[in-house]
Amino acid sequence: MGRPESPRLITIKTGIDHTEKMLQWTEKKLTELEQRNLCGFIFKSKSPSSGIAGVKVYKPSGVPSQRGVGIFGGAFMKRFPLTPVIDDVRLHNPQLRKNFIEGVCVFQRWQELLKSRDINDLVGFHTSHKLLMLAHSPRHYALLGQLVADAKGVKRKDLYASYIQGFMEGMRLLATPAKNANVLMRIAGYLKKFITADEKQELLEVIENYRQCLVPLIVPVTLVKHYARKYRIVYLEKQRYLNPHPVELMPQNHV
User: Fold this and answer.
1) Where is the DUF1722 domain (predicted)?
2) Structural domain total, the chain
């Protein structure tokens, strides 16, 4: 098998000022982007054209009346509601950056899944992303689990559309230290069947240090991955929570 294609990210900053020309350009650009199978999009913050939040909206008098989204940014999110987006300012926030990167990688894996449309692949996707979704939204994980369980009674097209909509909604919720710590404790409970008493104590101490924000997420995650390899725990090795993105991006080192 060949190496998976890297997620596609595009950053656009336009200087078009005339509203009518901007609308025409936007429609043309969105039509072109439909052919790109994008996994994520980075926008210019507060831009009248590309901003996705906090953009000044002016009255005919020239006085700003509210804050909204840019012409292109708003149209993009309406056309591609599932595609992860972020602006260049939020990209500097470690937690928001991690959330965005995870969303991009999930969406890429989903697009690969769509090539087969095999229900067993959907079940495998759901299983391997269990802990990742729990870290973002336990409520969405429960809803998605019920959807997969009832899959036989749902048309395949509707099933896939409902699943990915719910999944990406859940991924937009931040995986906080408290939620991550709960997932790590769940992993520790699973590991107790394999690891020694000393190893269990070490893991619990590391998780508590992370909960108190004394160490970054990469510390307990690395320890869990070590135990999974040491004891050949296939279930954990396949969990995307432990490998949610290319290692060289390193967002877990900063949260």
Assistant:
1) 130-246
2) 3
Type of residue found at 31: T
210 contacts 219 by C-beta, under 8 angstroms: yes
Separation of alpha carbons 52 and 104, rounded Å: 17
- Residue ranges making up the domain that contains 137: 92-171
133 and 107 fall within a common domain: yes
Between CA 69 and CA 46 the distance in angstroms is: 8
Q: Which amino acid, residue 16?
A: I
Shared-domain flag, residues 83 and 99: no
Written as tens digits, the pLDDT of the chain (255 aa) is 445 555 555 555 544 456 788 889 999 999 999 999 899 999 998 888 888 888 877 666 666 666 788 889 999 999 999 999 999 999 999 999 999 999 999 999 999 999 887 899 999 999 999 999 999 999 999 999 999 999 888 899 999 999 999 999 999 999 999 999 999 999 999 999 999 999 999 999 999 999 999 999 999 999 999 999 999 999 999 999 999 988 777 766 666
